[in-house]
């Protein structure tokens, strides 16, 4: 529990962590391994489910965690980035880490960081410190399971230091090209780097060249491979604006009439992947997970900012579609929502894929608002207006995301749809503002 008077110390701790961004994005495992050694290797004390992939990592991770929570297991989940509160990254049984615990963990870590540098090593990056914090916190709290989401890529991402029971690859698409490679084969090699001996691999990847790489890596380690789409099947029964209903067969176990509280048909694949992971825990590791836990978990799971319908009249939809695959999923979902006009509010980080995403989404909009994600990587954010102009769409540029969504919402009629999409840096500010406008309680900020 947070103690009175600790707010200032917590702010100082967050400022310290923010200061670590000066060490940049420096991939590799030497620094995180050295740091974890100082902490007596907490990663070796954890039963890890490691979740990688291009899209769907977070949704799949939260569904696995929710099922395990419902089954009665103390389960930690480490995800990134956060939407509203830094502590969203470190959650046990649905409860964020306390401010006082963040302070305590960083106080424990700082001397080791200084000792590493004094010994001539590179300073760990901000994400490496977060990873160490998560693993140390979960080990000290003696969680039954730790769901660890990959930060970037897989093979040399700082989360790739544990010994997972299950390695999960949701899919492989074109993303982070500057770091992971220029084609699917190169990216798939990096993503498959989380596959380890003495584990089980679950994947929902469906591109043949990607599957070949994953299958080859699994076979090389002699580990079991479960394929969603071949070993796992689902059939949608119906979809509403706030719920999906479907049947699921996972490794010969039948789950009829599941209800999913996440929207978009792509979430059926993510749900199938999550249930497959839990079925593997049952069959390969003798973990007791009653069917009731699966039904209850999927019916209540929340993952803010991912195809999230905040309001049905007028319709207000939020989605962090930050790459082409994600934009294609959003495009399909938008076709299923009835409306008179579509107002699109979009802001993205400077990336090679930005124009491709805009070319997918802007043509179906009736009006476009361009805004700036609150990140140093926003670059030429206003350049998206040129694409809107190419399609002869009315466009308004407002750099402040809060002001942009306020103005976009003001233009809405009850039969219209406002879609806010792009970087999660944008979504955080936009979502908070929309919750105020719609008078939705702040407790709804995190599921």
In short:
The chain has 447 residues and is of the alpha/beta class. 40% of the residues lie in helices and 19% in strands.
Offer a few descriptive terms.
447 residues, UDP-N-acetylmuramoyl-L-alanine:D-glutamate ligase, Protein-Tyrosine Phosphatase, Chain A, 6-stranded mixed beta sheet
Briefly note the structural class of the backbone.
Answer: alpha/beta
Number of helices: 15
CATH superfamily of the largest domain: Mur-like, catalytic domain
Query: What's the rounded overall pLDDT mean?
Result: 91
Q: What is the β-strand count?
A: 17
Overall 3D geometry? globular
* Percent helix range: 25-40%
Report on this structure:
- This protein is of the alpha/beta class and 447 residues long.
- The protein has two domains: 7-300, UDP-N-acetylmuramoyl-L-alanine:D-glutamate ligase, CATH 3.40.1190; 308-445, Mur ligase, C-terminal domain (Protein-Tyrosine Phosphatase, Chain A), CATH 3.90.190.20.
- Helices cover 40% and strands 19% of the residues.
- The protein is built from 15 helices and 17 strands.
- The strands form three sheets. Strands 4-3-2-5-1-6-7-8 form an eight-stranded mixed beta sheet, with helices on both faces. A six-stranded mixed beta sheet has the order 12-13-17-14-15-16, with helices on both faces. A three-stranded antiparallel beta sheet has the order 9-10-11, with helices on one face.
- The protein is globular.
- The model has no long low-confidence stretch (mean pLDDT 91).
């Amino acid at each position: 529990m947070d103690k009175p008077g600790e707010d200032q110390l917590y702010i100082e701790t967050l400022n310290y962590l923010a200061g670590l961004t000066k060490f940049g994005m420096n991939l590799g495992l030497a620094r995180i391994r050295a740091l974890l050694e100082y902490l007596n290797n907490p990663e070796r004390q954890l039963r890890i489910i490691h979740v990688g992939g291009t899209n769907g990592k977070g949704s799949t991770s939260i569904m696995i965690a929710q099922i395990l929570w419902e089954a009665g297991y103390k389960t930690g989940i480490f995800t990134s980035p956060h939407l509203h509160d830094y502590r969203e990254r470190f959650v046990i049984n649905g409860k964020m880490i306390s401010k006082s615990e963040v302070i305590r963990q960083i106080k424990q870590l700082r001397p080791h960081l200084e000792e590493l540098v004094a010994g001539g090593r590179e300073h760990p990056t901000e994400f490496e410190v977060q990873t160490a914090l998560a693993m140390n916190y979960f080990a000290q709290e003696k969680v039954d399971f730790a769901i660890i989401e990959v930060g970037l890529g897989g093979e040399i991402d700082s989360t790739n230091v544990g010994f997972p029971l299950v390695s999960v690859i949701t899919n492989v698409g074109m993303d982070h090209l500057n770091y992971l490679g220029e084609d699917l084969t190169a990216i798939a090699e990096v993503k498959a780097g989380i596959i380890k001996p003495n584990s089980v691999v679950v994947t929902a990847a469906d591109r043949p060249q990607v599957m070949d790489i994953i299958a080859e890596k699994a076979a090389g380690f002699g580990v079991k491979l479960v394929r969603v789409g071949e070993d796992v099947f689902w059939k949608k029964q119906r979809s509403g604006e706030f719920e999906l209903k479907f049947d699921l067969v996972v490794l010969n176990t039948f789950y009829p009439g599941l209800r999913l509280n996440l929207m978009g048909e792509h979430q059926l694949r993510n749900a199938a992947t999550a249930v497959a992971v839990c079925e593997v825990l049952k069959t390969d590791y003798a973990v007791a997970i009653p069917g009731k836990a699966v039904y209850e978990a999927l019916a209540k799971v929340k993952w803010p900012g991912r195809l999230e319908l905040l309001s049905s009249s007028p319709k207000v939809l939020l989605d962090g579609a930050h790459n082409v695959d994600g934009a294609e999923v959003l495009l399909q979902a938008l076709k299923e929502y009835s409306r008179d006009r579509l107002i699109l509010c979009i802001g993205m980080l400077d990336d090679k894929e930005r124009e491709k995403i805009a070319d997918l989404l802007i043509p179906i909009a009736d009006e476009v608002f361009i805004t700036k994600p609150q990140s140093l990587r926003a670059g030429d954010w206003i350049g998206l207006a040129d694409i809107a102009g190419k399609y002869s769409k009315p466009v308004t540029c407002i750099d402040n995301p809060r002001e942009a969504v306020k103005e976009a919402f003001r233009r809405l009629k009850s039969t219209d749809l406002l879609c806010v999409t792009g970087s999660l840096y944008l979504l955080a500010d936009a979502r908070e503002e929309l919750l105020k406008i719609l008078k939705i309680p702040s407790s709804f900020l995190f599921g």
